[in-house]
Amino acid sequence: MSKKRKKYDxxxxxxxxxxxxxxxRSVSEVERNLDISMxxxxxxxxxHNADPKESFPGKGRLKSKDEEIRRLKNxxxxxxxxxxxxxxxxxxxxxxxx
Length: 98
Prior knowledge:
The protein is an all-alpha fold. The protein is built from 4 helices and no strands. The chain has helices at residues 10-21, 27-34, 40-50, 64-96.
């Protein structure tokens, strides 16, 4: 039997982090009181400390640098497809010249 994964919004995560950072409560205590899986809050604290502005972008959203990477990958894919079409056209017209 698998456990259903809990989802927490950014406000909940930020409040839990605040309890650890500002009220100096232990991570394990806050995890127990808020019924958060062991180790999850410590990860949230690390993520938030590393990048406070973009630590929890929200459901379906990416951090700005990840969004830029996705955009560039899509752009590269399109450029490769266009290149392949041009290559095939060159081969076709080169054979037509014979």
